[in-house]
Amino acid sequence: MKRFAFSVMSLALTDCGATQTPPQETGGETATISSPALPLPEYFDCLRKNKGMVIAAHRGGPDTGFPENAIETFQHGFDKGIRVFEIDVAETKDGVLTLMHDDRLNRTTTGSGYVSDTDWETMSGLELEDNDGRRTGFHPPKLTDALLWAKQTGAVLELDKKPTTSFRNIAAAVKAAGAEENVIFISYNDDQAAEIAAINPDLMMTATAYGDRDVAKLERRGVDRTRLIGWTGTDEPKPAAWARLEQVGVEPAFGTLGRKGERLDDLYLADGDASEYDALAADGLVLLATDEPYRVADMITADDAGREACGR
């Protein structure tokens, strides 16, 4: 089983926007960072203009032996071509930002009880379990370490705020890590989008938007459309909405994730081909959130086209 090891000190000195970075050792594999990378808004503009689609791995892309919300899992996905990782940010009893989806520790760790009742010393000593309940030898990471990993590799982290923390605390951690070009904040309503924009209008975010009227409404709340990705749900593809968003320079996002047996991932993959996913890209989709990032990445061509045209 591959482990991911790195030096926080060396990562803190890494700047993706400068020159070619020496190869980094990652669990026996060598990863080289190509610089400079396009600024994040320009990266998504490039994908939109070149009909590229980027895959966002839900909960970091868990796989056999790799648990959700773990840096080792992100590296595993990165090695397989994934560049965007949706992760869940929570806060411990003593104010440490960590990655954890559930309110309780029981499902994904060897611990029990609530995250909000657990201090970092206890949390960091827990072992993460994969989706089959097997211990992995990995431990819950700090958000800061995940941000530094993203800076090192050029990956993008979609930050899903859990109720135990705040956008302001997360934004402070992003600023301290200098990782503004490696994160997208997730908002679930216009109030949250406005709150993120008020904290830092330069932060990228996803917010519900189906066309120019929604974009204009968000702009009146302080959201910069050049930093906006329009979220269009998980129920059915909406090419007409994606076209409306593209007309005003906003990249559309859509999710095929959800409950097993009900999600579009299961429907699309049932026939063993990726034609439905490639059709999403052809219809203008730029950001695809999925529970099956590895299978989708292996089967589609739009993500390859996006990497070739836009980097990362």
Q: What would CATH call the architecture of one domain? A: Alpha-Beta Barrel
In spatial order, strands of the major sheet run 3-4-6-7-8-9-10-11
Beta percentage is 15-25%
Given helix and strand content, the structural type is: alpha/beta
For the record, give the distance between the C-alpha atoms at the N and C termini, rounded to a whole number: 26 Å
Please, what is the average pLDDT? 89
Relevant CATH superfamily of one domain: Phosphatidylinositol (PI) phosphodiesterase
The H-and-E topology, N to C, reads as HEEHEHEEHHEHEHEHEHEHHEHH
Largest sheet: 8 strands, parallel, barrel
Q: Stretches where pLDDT falls below 50 for ≥5 residues? A: 1-35
Number of strands: 11
Tell the overall outline: globular
* Count of helix runs: 13
Give the helix proportion (percent range): 25-40%
Question: What Rg, in angstroms, do the CA atoms define?
Answer: 18 Å
The CATH topology of one domain corresponds to TIM Barrel
State the CATH class of one domain.
Alpha Beta
Structural features, described:
It contains 13 helices and eleven strands. It is of the alpha/beta class and 312 residues long. The protein has a domain at 38-87 and 156-164 and 177-310: Phosphatidylinositol (PI) phosphodiesterase (TIM Barrel, Alpha-Beta Barrel). The strands form two sheets. Strands 3-4-6-7-8-9-10-11 form an eight-stranded parallel beta barrel, surrounded by eight helices. Strands 1-2 form a two-stranded antiparallel sheet. Helix 8 links the parallel strand 8 and strand 9. Helix 5 packs across helix 6 (167-177). The longest helix is centred in the middle third of the chain and has 11 residues, at 143-153. It is globular and about 50 Å long.
